[in-house]
Amino acid sequence: MPTQSISTFTSVYGPVKSWRYGTSLGIDPIGSVSTCSFNCVYCQLGEIQIRTNQRQIFVPTEQIICDLQPFAPWDVDVITLSGNGEPTLALNLGEIIAQIKQITHKPVLVLTNGTLLIDPRVRTALSLADRVSVKVDAVFPEQLRRINRPIVEFNWQQVWQGIQQFRQDYKGEIGIQTMLLTSWDERSKQRYIELMRSLQPDEIQLNTPTRAKPLTHQLEARGNHTNADSLPYPVQILKQVSSDILQTFAEEIYDSTKILVRCAPHLVNS
Length: 270
Ligand code: SF4
Hints:
By secondary structure, this protein is an alpha/beta fold. It has a single domain (6-263), classed as Aldolase class I (TIM Barrel). It is built from 7 helices and 12 strands. The strands form 3 sheets. The chain has an 8-stranded mixed sheet. Strand 6 (108-112), helix 3 and strand 7 (131-135) form a beta-alpha-beta unit. The chain is globular. The model is unreliable at 1-6 (pLDDT under 50). The structure holds iron/sulfur cluster (SF4). Iron/sulfur cluster (SF4) binds next to loops.
């Protein structure tokens, strides 16, 4: 089993540029061993090292607050919790969000794959964030298994139910992030539109893989890499859809739902 190498690990990284959220300081509550309930085929971290739904404290809150200090006065648009896996697996998630906000007075964003939203304790912790971006790459169970490759404990219906419950409770801004590796057929597109119409997120972000996938786990892949040629480790270039396909789908979603849809602005590997 991979082990944590705390000596080389720092829980704060960046700032990185996000096409949606501006300049962002990254917070990693997971640690040096990638840990997630998904193992997405396009994951920028490479193959996930530990696949689990077990929540625990990976990085003590005091360590994160200590790692945050050298970045003062935190001249960024947002502070983002994501890092080396699924941030809602961190049992100290709520405490981390509350302390970051108290110290930095910056908005806090959490990027989540949504699998743990079925747990009311996770929803309560996430309610402290100003923005939450939830991954929805699949509208059918088979698609979830193929793209996100969840651990066996999760099925599509249960994940969607958790997302719906979170939407009902949450007072902050909720975005849905959807990654397209290929053009979707009409049935999948209509199903997605129906789901978004019922969910009513504040916005939808359509994306396609602009980051190459490392062949082995790379902690530094937490940051902002877009040019595969300049990476110091071997990578797999992933399939992308064209900006025309993204844009056309975005217009279809908007026309049917009136929900704001943003598309990833550039495609580096096409
Ligand atoms: S949910 Fe995120 S961290 Fe987890 S495997 Fe997918 S892309 Fe990687």
